[in-house]
Design brief:
- There is one protein chain.
- The protein folds into 3 domains: 81 residues, Winged helix-like DNA-binding domain superfamily/Winged helix DNA-binding domain (Arc Repressor Mutant, subunit A); 99 residues, Periplasmic binding protein-like II (D-Maltodextrin-Binding Protein, domain 2), CATH 3.40.190.10; 104 residues, 3-Layer(aba) Sandwich (D-Maltodextrin-Binding Protein, domain 2), CATH 3.40.190.
- The relative contact order is 0.15.
- With 295 residues, the protein is an alpha/beta fold.
- It is built from 9 helices and 13 strands.
- Helix 1 packs across helix 2, helix 1 crosses helix 3 and helix 1 packs across helix 4.
- The protein has a 5-stranded mixed sheet, with helices on both faces. Strands 7, 10, 11 and 12 form a 4-stranded antiparallel sheet that branches.
Length: 295
């Protein structure tokens, strides 16, 4: 039993016998505990045959003792809450464009279900997310692709489709669908493979299906740059269809005729580092994804 708690009870009873009875201990251990506290350099309790009284130093010490004990109880409550997955903090990575792939819907539902758990988003390429997950530096991540690397697990996000991004001044900008085979001579802006291998390979696969070798004139490292270059007439690009939600001017997104290639995304985590809070997050994400309407 903490000696600070013994002091609090004694201060409330002002009698060693009654305090010991209330604490369910004998009087000698209580006296020994108070004496050990008085080794701080000041008497805390004035004793008499009938009752005791706190000294001024004892009264001051009582205030701090109560404050410390309340802090200990708060700490215990926090520990229990975190252990039960009711509070705490999760660090979740995400690829920039996946922000438009229901990530905020998933996190919004989780916050409503468990407001005691803080979710901090960190934008980073998928490859960097996977490395952080493998080394326990991230709780979960929203990455590109359809298959998690070894040692990691994943659940798929709703699929997106790759579409053509072209300037509004382009002769084909008003068409409802465009055949990629008719664009063999067009210049293309391409996403760097190291930043998003899954998307890069899907786009290359799309060109391969169309039987054309793309004329790549520029490489970019994020979708905002890609679409900005297209809007400025630097070339065309193949991008995820959900980027229409960026509402960028100067360019249009048009479906591709005959070639439906999905742009896959996934929620990834490391089963070796699953905390109660992360377990609840994954359960919530599963429910949120199941409730989403088909695209």
């Amino acid at each position: 039993m903490h000696p600070y708690w013994l002091l609090v009870v004694l201060a409330e009873e002002l009698h060693f016998g009654r305090a010991a009875q209330r604490l369910a201990i004998t009087q000698p251990p209580l006296s020994t505990a108070i004496k050990s506290l008085e080794e701080l350099g000041a008497a805390l309790f004035m004793r008499s045959k009938t009752r005791g009284q706190l000294t001024p130093a004892g009264a001051a010490f009582l205030v701090e003792a109560r404050r410390l004990l309340e802090g200990v109880e708060r700490a215990k409550s926090v520990v229990r809450s975190v252990d039960q997955g009711m509070s705490g903090r999760l660090e979740v990575g995400f690829g920039g464009t996946l922000l438009f792939r229901d990530i905020l819907t998933i996190i919004g539902q989780f916050k409503r279900e468990l407001p005691g758990i803080e979710v901090m988003l960190r934008e980073m390429p998928s490859a960097e997310q996977f490395d952080c997950l493998l080394h326990g530096r991230l709780d979960a991540g929203f990455g590109h692709g359809g298959m998690a690397p070894p040692k990691l697990k994943s659940m798929p996000l709703k699929e997106d489709e790759l579409v053509l991004c072209l300037p509004v001044e382009h002769p084909r900008a008003e068409e409802s669908v465009i055949d990629l085979r008719n664009l063999a001579d067009e210049p293309f802006v391409m996403f760097e493979r190291e930043m998003n291998p899954a998307n890069h390979d899907a786009v290359i696969g799309l060109f391969s299906q169309a039987g054309i070798h793309p004329r790549i004139v520029h490489y970019t490292r994020n979708w905002m740059t890609t679409m900005s270059m297209v809007s400025e007439g630097c070339g065309l690009a193949i991008v995820p269809g959900t980027l229409c939600r960026m509402r960028m001017t100067g360019m249009r997104l048009v479906p591709l005729a005959g070639f439906a290639v999905p742009a896959r995304g996934m929620l990834v985590w490391n089963p070796a580092f699953v905390t109660p809070g992360l377990e609840r997050f994954l359960e919530s994400a599963t429910r949120a994804l199941a409730a989403l309407p088909p695209r």
